């Protein structure tokens, strides 16, 4: 859930979000935040890779802890548009306008990362001006990509019908994935996410190390699926299902072949 920056090292709160989207280890989070070296909390909402959408109560709790220990919040909300019916997204800035910045982009939702566009919402005017000054002084950045600006404006102003169709398509892909796993690979535990187009799959019952599983997937099944080791848990795979269902079907067949061989 969080990753606090300490010089060149990262401090993590391990196992904070599980496959059922429940947050555990609030005491661990508190212990990390109260350390004097902890200055920033990196929050991802909706969460990558689990697909969890933080509830209002959870966000309020996080904000209260950060305020208690004077920790600045940087919230990455790039998946905020891709939320399914059973969940409701709320930005952390609904609960605080102090010591917080929200980072976002339309590029995930509308598949336009090549146009290079992102934006920050910083409620405090003084801090916003300081940030812009730092960009200019250190990185010589005085303006954003014109194509990035225009593409994001067009997407947000005219893309609502597309977004509805996208979420419906992604939901169908997740339904297919769930059915396939239950039928063909019941050892893999999977709960459909509340948001994002990422499937966070528990493969611990396969009895394979992360290295062995990757070897079977890549070299036998000829399919690439990201190992959970990238996110700190080798018992998971992260699969991107934002693709034509025909490609998903082929990928799942290859995954099954690699695992069963």
From TrEMBL:
Protein name: cysteine-S-conjugate beta-lyase
Alphabetical keyword list: Aminotransferase, Lyase, Pyridoxal phosphate, Transferase
Similarity section: Belongs to the class-II pyridoxal-phosphate-dependent aminotransferase family. MalY/PatB cystathionine beta-lyase subfamily.
GO MF, one annotated term: pyridoxal phosphate binding
EC number per UniProt: 4.4.1.13
Domain of life: Bacteria
Entries under PANTHER family matching the protein: PROTEIN MALY
EC main group: lyase
Domain Aminotransferase class I/classII large: residue ranges: 27-254
Cross-referenced CDD domains: AAT_like
Gene3D superfamilies: Aspartate Aminotransferase, domain 1, Type I PLP-dependent aspartate aminotransferase-like (Major domain)
UniProt organism field: Bifidobacterium longum
UniProt cross-references to InterPro entries, sorted A to Z: Aminotransferase_I/II_large, Class-II_PLP-Dep_Aminotrans, PyrdxlP-dep_Trfase, PyrdxlP-dep_Trfase_major, PyrdxlP-dep_Trfase_small
Cofactor entry: pyridoxal 5'-phosphate
């Amino acid at each position: 859930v969080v990753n606090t920056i300490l010089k060149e090292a990262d401090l993590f709160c391990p196992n904070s979000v599980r496959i059922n989207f429940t947050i555990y280890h609030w005491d661990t989070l508190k212990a990390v935040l109260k350390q004097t070296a902890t200055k920033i909390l990196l929050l991802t909402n909706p969460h990558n890779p689990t697909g969890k959408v933080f509830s209002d109560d959870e966000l309020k709790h996080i904000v209260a802890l950060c305020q208690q220990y004077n920790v600045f919040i940087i919230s990455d909300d790039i998946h905020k548009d891709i939320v399914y019916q059973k969940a409701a997204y709320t930005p952390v800035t609904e609960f605080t306008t102090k010591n917080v910045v929200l980072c976002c982009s339309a590029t995930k939702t509308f598949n336009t990362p090549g146009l290079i566009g992102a934006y920050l919402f910083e409620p405090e005017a003084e801090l916003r001006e300081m940030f812009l000054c730092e960009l200019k002084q250190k990185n010589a950045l005085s303006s954003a990509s014109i194509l990035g600006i225009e593409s994001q404006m067009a997407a947000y102003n005219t893309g609502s019908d597309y977004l509805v169709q996208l979420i419906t398509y992604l939901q169908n892909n997740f339904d297919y994935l769930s059915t396939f796993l239950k039928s063909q690979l019941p050892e893999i535990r999977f709960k459909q996410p509340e948001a994002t187009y990422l499937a966070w799959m528990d493969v611990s019952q396969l009895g394979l190390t992360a290295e062995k599983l990757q070897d079977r997937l890549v070299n036998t099944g000829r399919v690439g699926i990201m190992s959970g080791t990238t996110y700190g848990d080798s018992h998971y795979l992260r699969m991107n299902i934002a693709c034509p269902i025909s490609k998903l079907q082929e990928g799942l067949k290859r995954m099954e072949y690699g695992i069963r061989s």
